Structures are given as C-alpha cells and as structure tokens.
Amino acid sequence: EAIKGFKLLDVMMRRYDVVVTNPPYMDSRDYNDRLKKFIEKTYPASKRNLYSAFTERCLEFLGENGRLGIITGQSFMFLSSFIKFRQNTLDAHVIECLTQFDYGLFADARVDTTAFVLRREVDTNIRSESVSTFFRVVKGDTSESKRLAFENALQSLRQNEAHPCVYRYRQSYFDTIPGSPWVYWMTPGLRRLFQTLPKLGEIAPAIHGTATYDNFRFLRYWWEIGINNVGLYNESWSDFTGSNLDYVPYMKGGSFKRWYGNQEYVIQLLNEGQVLTVFLEYKQDCIRGADKIFRRGVTYSYLTSGSFAARLSPGGFIFDVAGSSLFPDDTFLTLGVLNSEFAAFGLKLINPTVNFQVGDLARLPVPKESSDTIHGLVDEAVEIAKCDSKDSETTYDFVSPPWDGSIDLTLQALNDRKKRLAEVERLINEEVYRLYGISEEDRAAIEAELAEPSMAANGEEETEAVEVEEESTEEAPKGADQLALRWISYAVGIVLGRFKPGMDDSIGCGRFTDTAAEALRALADSDGIAVLDEGHPDDLVTKVERALEIALGEAGAAEVITAALGTSADTTSLLRRYLERDFFKQHIQLYRKRPVYWLLQSPKKSYSVYVFHERITSDTLPLILGNRYLGGKINQIKQRIDDLSSEARSAEGSAKRKLEKALESLEGILLDLGAFDEAIHRVLEMKNDSGQTVGWQLAIDDGVILNMAPIHELIPSWSVEPRKFWAQLEAGDYDWAHTAMRYWPKRVRSKCKSNKSFAIAHDRLDLYEEAG
C-alpha cells in the first residue's frame, strides 16, 4: 500500500505534455461541508463548480507548452462568478481551439457542454496576439445533429472555406467586454461599440434592491390591504413618514412585461418602518439604495423566461432584489435601449442565462446621444402599456374592462392596440440602431444571433436567493370569453362596494355617464355583503345582472353573459350557476390565492354569502347571523316546512309522496343552515390561550390568508389553504402577526421579550426592554 501511495505521489508531482479528461461536474451548492471547505481554500478562483476546480488542477499538471484537452460545462465562459477563473486561465494559457455545444450533446443528461484545448504559454505577447479557432455548434438538440454539424464545419475549415459555425478570434479581444466573457462570435463593428461607448454602469449604476428575507411577513399584494392604505406618491423617506400610512409600492420583478406594469406588491413599513429595519438589522442588512428609493427610474425582472424586459418605474417605489432598478438622467433613452434588439443581443453576449444581474447591465454600452424621436416613441409605448394596466382589475391603475360597443369591436380595438405597440417597438429598434451607428452587416449579425435560443438557466450563477412568485394569470383578453368574464368580475366588485363608478380618484371608476355611474353606485351594499339567494334584496345574481345592464345596455349584458358562460335564453340561470360554482375558484386564481371577495358557506353549500374583505368589521359575522341573512333564511325554511307538513297531512297518494320528498329536502337544508349557524358561533366564541373569549376580527396588516385562517370552517369551497395556515399559526410560525397575538398572547408576549422586531410590531417594546 505504501508503494502504491508513492507511485500516486509520483504521478501527481510530474509535469505532462498532454492531459485529456472529462472531469466531474457538481455545483457548489451541492458540495458537502468537507468538500466545500477544501475547494474554497485550495481553488478559490474556480470554486463555483467541481469541473472548473478540476480544470484548474489539470492545468497545474502541464509542463511548458503542455496541452489540456477537456470537456466541461459552458457556464464558466460567461458567468460573473467565474471571472477570476477565466482571468487566471488566459494569464498563462492560449486557447488553441474550442467547440461550444450548448445543450443536447448527451442524450441521457441535460447539461450544457464545451470542449477545448488549452496550451501553456509563458510569453504575454504570444498569448495576447494568439488567434484561436472556435466552433459554435449550438443548433440542434441531439448528439447526432451536433456531430454532423461539427464534422461539416471541420471539413470546410480544412478546405479553407468559410462556414457559419467557424470563428477565428484574437484572445486579447475577450477584454473588450468587462469581465472578459469568452464571446468569440462578435463582429469587429460591434466590438468597437463595447470599446468606445460609455457603459450603462458609468452613467446609471443599477441598484441591487432590498431583500426582506421574509416576503410572507413584509410583502402584500396591494389588494390585500386596500389601495387607500398605500402611499402611492412619496418622493422621499420623509414624505413616507409624514403620510401616516404603513405601506408603499414595492417593485418585485415579475413576469415578462415591457414598458410598464408588474406593480402588484406593497411593502409593510409599520411604525414608520421600524419593524422592518430592526428585522433587517438581525440580518446585518438594511433598506438598500436609500438615496434612490421613491425616485422615477427603470426597473427590470431579475429572472426572465426569455428576452430581457425593462419597464418604467414611475416613482414612489421601494425596489426588490428581483426588481432591481437604475436611475439614469435620460429615463426614456435608457428604457428604449434596454428594450431594443441591440440590448437583447448585448446582454446575451454578457450573460446568456436567464438570470440578469446588476453587473450585467452595467457592462452594456449606451449611445452618447439621445433624440426627440426615441423620447416620443418610448413615451407612446409606455402609454399603450398603461392602457393595458387600466383594463386590468389587479392593478391600481384599473378603470374598467375595455368596451367598444360590443365584444367583437372591443377585441378588434385591443388587437389594433397590440399592432400599434409592435409598430412602435419596430421604430424604437430602428432609432436605437441609428443612435449606435450600427451597420447593416452588424445588424444582420445581431438578428441572426437573436434567432438562436438562449441558454437555459443552469443554476450556477452566484446570486442572492430570490423568491419567485406565481405569475399573474391576467393578461390582455385574447378571446370573447375572457373579456366577458372580466366584465362579470367587475360587476361583482361594483355590487360589493369595491369599485366606485364615477368617482375619479377611485379604483374601478369606469368610463360611464354621470347617470349610469350613479345608478351603479346605488347597487353597492354598504356592508360589502351579498347572498346567493333568489328573491333576496341583496341577491348577488340579480344585482350583477343589473349592473351589467346599466354599464353595457341590455343587449351588451346578454352578450357578455352568453359569451362567458354559454348560449341560453335564460341568462339569469347561467349567471347564477356561474356565481355559485366557478366564480370563486377563478377569483382565487386571478388574485394569487389572496382573494378580496370571500365566499362564506354552509357545510353543504346550500347557503352562500359573499363578503368584501375591506368592508369586514366586528359586526359582519353577527350581521350574517341575523334576520337579514342566515337567521331570516332559517326562519323562512322553518315556515316552509310547517306549511308543507300541514299540506302533507291532508294529502294522499303521489301528491303526499311529492310533498314528503320536498320536506325531506328542506329538512336537509335546515340542518345545513343550522350547522352554518353553529360554525359562525364557534368562530365568534373562540378563546385565546388564557381562556378569554376573543372571537374573530380582521387584522388587515396580517394579509388575506392569515385573516382567513381562523374562519377556514366557514369557507368549505377553499378550506384547505386557510386550514394549512391556521395549523402554522397554532405552531407559532407567524408570531409577528396580530392574529397570533389574538389567540396565543402568552406565547407571543414571551417572544417579544427576545425579538425586538416582534415587540415593535405588537407595540410591546416594554417587554423587550424589561428583558434587557
């Protein structure tokens, strides 16, 4: 064994003319503790993946002019976490040849690959002036197609013929782009842009946004707490502290969207922000970009599903890691450039993954001059995108769903809007190309490159953890049914008092005449309650149908109902069936599992009550129990049972059997109503951990789902999610919440003694200070 050890040591100490290998692959997040410590200490420049550390070790084996032939992942060629590794490699070696395969080389594994030969070279000038051969075999998704493409390119090279997959590139050119990514396919004209133009980071440094470390605690969708509780127009921190509001808009990234939008989140800043700032102190962090927050700027999504997309940040926002922002002097020029084909190409060179870092944007060259043309076009693009926002009820720009007299005319108008935006974007591209002075040849190269698929995310970039939210399901309506369903949802919001037609400063103010707006507002229930009970004065179906008739006319209302729900002469029945069965499920999906209209029902769903959560008070459940709603319905059913029982006693034959069957059905309904009554009483009689009756009360700061949790028994159509959070509340997972203090004050007060953020949140800083 000792002899074997010395032989291995002899092998490891030698220098070699040739080293050829296929190294092991493992991302650093998968290292065990022992391997992690060893790699970080011994190979700090190549620690991001085992293959790069292995490559570095293999290079150590090479003697003078020795060569390494190796196949690895391609991520080291581009990503910022490999900058030092790339630098060290080119400081001592020449790339003799490289073939980039991207994905698809191996049939049994989805990995990106590149194969290359490096030669040790001590002469700096030789390294710098060395011209290498590169094969770009990224097309095709099978190993066979890549083999054939490579062999075809190699044949052309041997015959001194040009081939689109073959590139000759000087090694010193890699330094053209900061960070020196191995981008070997850039044309001389485009390379000059990176060499001569200012970089975006020099004129508008991107700010890496604030991380809350607990989005569930500190972030809300704006509709959870109501737009009136959000400070929309702050220009500074002092504006916020003087507003007496606890929430400000929070730019959170989001799905692919250009020009404007993705403004759905707000951040909770209770006690003038002290709850959050103290919490961040525990994380040795703070609200970042303090001198930039609330300013107008440009934002973008950290994680994209394809092309890069930038949007106007209109001012008044704090921004997130996933919605990092920059604040240029010329906002519209920057926005136009970032949404152009050139920026898509440039960013694909800098970082061909789907994770865009602030450092990636900083390396992008920008034109030295702007123009009135680019300003006008970008302004128009933003305004078109704002129109989409005004049509969507999940935005706080919402006015009403679109309507141009009929569904067909409306869809045509929306299609025309989409076409106009496409034309504006085309003109923006033309102007950006002109401002950069890009030649037709270089433009063709850009367009050809953009036609290629981007690298899929490989998860190797060293980034801050980002929580990726479920994307919104609401886009511009693409069909008659989607448009029609929007109108039904809007009508529900009018009836429940969420939308106030004709009130200019109100969400959902609509585009109605004064007479129509007044009639629509008259339909709203002052308590935010509506029942699914035919003949009841607060019957939701009757009011929604009436709202559609006022808003769209009788023909328009009928068109909307049938387009959404199917053809029938009895549109009222169609609407009733939809509001009873499907509306709540769709509403939950649209509002990301944070619904604003809550469907309270009896266990077997024979009685249904919708409530608008912003109108809920301590009187809401007792009101539902009373004679206007559940109590009256119980009395009505009892009276009907008495009447039928009397009739049944004197009836005979089939008539008697029919009456008995009806009685049996009514008695079942009565039992269900009684169970609903008992369930509501259980909620109202709930006790805390000290045995005191505390009932249930809305705590708006806790967010929708924690408020629904204690009443999960009243929501049989969606009880699983609220019940899950109730169990987590019981387990002590959210003791920062007012709901937790309501039911478990002993436990929460105890935590306040050691957690200053909890203590401030519950206004019990005295407990923390007393505990020392």
Estimated structural class: alpha+beta
Q: State the helical fraction.
A: 40-55%
Strand composition percent: 5-15%
Largest sheet: 6 strands, mixed
Poorly predicted runs of 5 or more residues: 455-473
Radius of gyration: 33 Å
**What is the terminal separation in angstroms?**
62 Å
Sum up the overall morphology in one term.
elongated
Using DSSP, what is the number of strands? 17
- Please give the order of strands in the largest beta sheet: 1-2-4-3-5-6
Average pLDDT, rounded to a whole number, is 89
Number of helices: 32
Commentary on this structure:
The protein is built from 32 helices and 17 strands. It has 772 residues and is α+β, with helices and mostly antiparallel strands. The strands form 4 sheets. The chain has a 6-stranded mixed sheet, with helices on both faces. A 4-stranded antiparallel sheet has the order 7-14-11-12. The radius of gyration is 33 Å and the shape is elongated.
